[in-house]
Amino acid sequence: MPDINSNLNDQVWGLKINKCEIMGIEFKNAVSQLDYYEDIFSNFVSGSLMLSASSAFQDELKWSGNEFINLELDKPLRPEAESIQPLKLKLRIFDIKARKLGNDGNENYYITFCSPPLSLSEQTKISKSYKRKRIDEIIKNIANEYLNIDVNIKPTLGERDIVIPKLKPFEAINWLCTQAIAADLPNSLESGAEYLFWANRDGYYCWSVMHIYNSLPAMIYRNPLSALISGENVGGEGRGSTRGYWYGTKNFEQNGEKWDPYEHIVSFEVMNTYDTVESSQRGMYGNSLLSIDYIRRKHTIETFNYNKYWNYLNGNITKFKDVTYNNIKPFDGPAEQEIDKSIESAIKIYSSTTTQKDSEYLQLVGIDPPSNYPETFVPYRFAQLGLVSHQRLKIAIPGDPFIAVGYVVKVTFPKSNKQIREIGEKEDKTLSGWYLVAAVRHSLNQENQFLTYLELVKEAKHKTTM
Q1: How far is residue 112's CA from residue 37's CA, in Å, rounded to a whole number?
Q2: Which of 142, 174, 201 is nearest to 43 (CA)?
Q3: I need a labelling partner for 10 at 20 to 30 A (CA). Which of 102, 151, 355, 465 fits?
Q4: Model-level pTM?
Q5: How is the chain split into domains, by residue range?
Q6: Separation CA 205–CA 227 (nearest Å)
Q7: What is the pLDDT at residue 219?
Q8: Which CATH class is domain 8-116?
Q9: Beta strand 245-246 with 408-412: parallel, antiparallel or unpaired?
């Protein structure tokens, strides 16, 4: 293992602002506070800067609301880490506020910014029909034509005739995501419809949550500087092996390896866990769909049952129990009788063409598949997106501009019981486990403290193969 030099503390806790350029003027030395946000349930990134300067740049720029900021954030790195890419963003400034004179004679003001496509989306409405197109093709077209962005999107099932009814581009994309079923997962119709469209430091993504789970070797995150210090190769899938983030366990060894300063949890908050009454009321364990064929005047009732879905999912779609970093069962689900009673706690109504599969017209025009499959995407999505956030944590870690939403991380919390005999008994098995990074906030305060806050979500309780 390479020697850790005396500047490790600055490397772990510091932030290096390589660039903060606004309309050709460099402001990096004027930055006194920074907040940057990503959220897997948001279509754009956002944030704010507090600048403190005495050069009257604001008069020279003549702020009009059309300015852009080029921001580049990095860590104070050793020479060996030059290959690690910093956080590079081009963002749209949309507001300047709290402009006032400070005690030191400098003028302070806040700049708020967002992804440029948000401004385009707010100014545009789409009224357009798409004939015989897959949903991923439609989303790509909207992203390219109306938002000037490329999107990393997973293929969706089936061609559709769809009319966008005068919606903003982001509204249209989010609406299409509710109907998107993955085409490249085994038994696609039974995998659910949890497509999300989000932005992070690497670009724009439109994946289902199941795609993330099915790509875990590539989605498991480890701070590249941590891998560098341990002597591991930071390239390839998974950024090297990771012991994950640890809270209050500096002297805890696992497999002969000690706590890593880059993977230390500074503080944590349990945001919510297991409100089974509310979950039953919302239909997360069981719900029903009344699908209506208005043409043939027929209807069907489809139900979502969590226990039956899990038993089918495990091994048919994702082999949870065959990989060490997945949970054998997400949580101790309610009894079958409880689910049966909660099926009607949430009832959705949706138009369907499923009963028209034998229609001569549909066969004549060659629509394949003929159904829009609401029996799958409505009840499954409704339950799955609630279940994804069944347990939420917020943790603070040493500032890390390399992490992004969509990654998966492992966290370990110590057991509060002092009478511990074996190493394995040191872990709190309720909170510890693998989590999806759902939100990221980078924060540099006026005391020059750089922290990263992660909102982590998981469906899992404690039954793991670890």
Answers
A1: 11
A2: 174
A3: 102
A4: 0.86
A5: 8-116, 120-211, 214-274+389-458, 276-387
A6: 26
A7: 87
A8: mainly beta
A9: parallel
